Amino acid sequence: MWLDDLFPGEWKFSMAVVPIFLLCIAPTEASYEFPAYRIYQYDYQSADVTDREAFGSSVAQVSFEGRAPDAKQITRKNVVMNLLDITSKQSFNSLLEKNPGSVLIILPDFMRTEDFRNVTKETLDQIAEAERALLDFPVTQIPIYFSYETAELKQIQEELKDLSDMSGASAVLYAGSAVLHQFSVTQKQPEVLKAQLDAIESRLDGISGSPTILVTTKMDAFASSFALARGANSAASGLGVTLEIARSLSMLFIDDSTRPQYK
Questions:
Q1: How many C-beta atoms surround the C-beta of residue 16 within 10 A?
Q2: pTM of this prediction?
Q3: From which residue to which does any coiled coil extend (predicted)?
Q4: Which of 30, 123, 164, 252 could join 71 via S-S bond, C-beta 3.0 to 4.6 A?
């Protein structure tokens, strides 16, 4: 019996002391606020109005106790994990299948900027693989958030890891002194905006009867969380690239001698 190993001799007498020990611990409360970005939520509808798919997280509110991803019990808990812990779509789906209450994904601090010159290619490949996994799963009612790494969040992760490493005996013995973290998002569920489709069309006419090349782009940002989009996926930069392509091609279409055999 594990009690005999933990308390050799008169363990019943030892256990009688535990409640008194717990009651002597002065409870303390502290709070730490940090910005978090919810994962995308959108519906995809094809030309066939009956063909509609939902993606992302459809729930925003969070009020769960924190746990490390390797904890034995994460059901109805807020799992705090690093982005680089997501090694594949399967690994992330297996986490969601355990029914966590919510997920907080910590982004590496260097991702605050777009300067990745000091980041190894292996790390960049890991980030790309993690985002592919996050962009490719069906709609879920599990709230999923992102936040940048900070000293406070690193400490919280270490304390959650220590909590998950406790055995059954240790969990009982140190129940009164264990550090617990409650995560909450108090904002209201955002309203679903009505879709408003705007189309801007321009064309360069080639020779009559020539084949047509269609160049399209989206005007919105696209990423696991739209507010965190970087590079060509942010700030409608795709539209700017398309306009630059149109400007360059228009110089060829002005003169008949350089006009391409396409529209």
A1: 10
A2: 0.68
A3: none
A4: 164
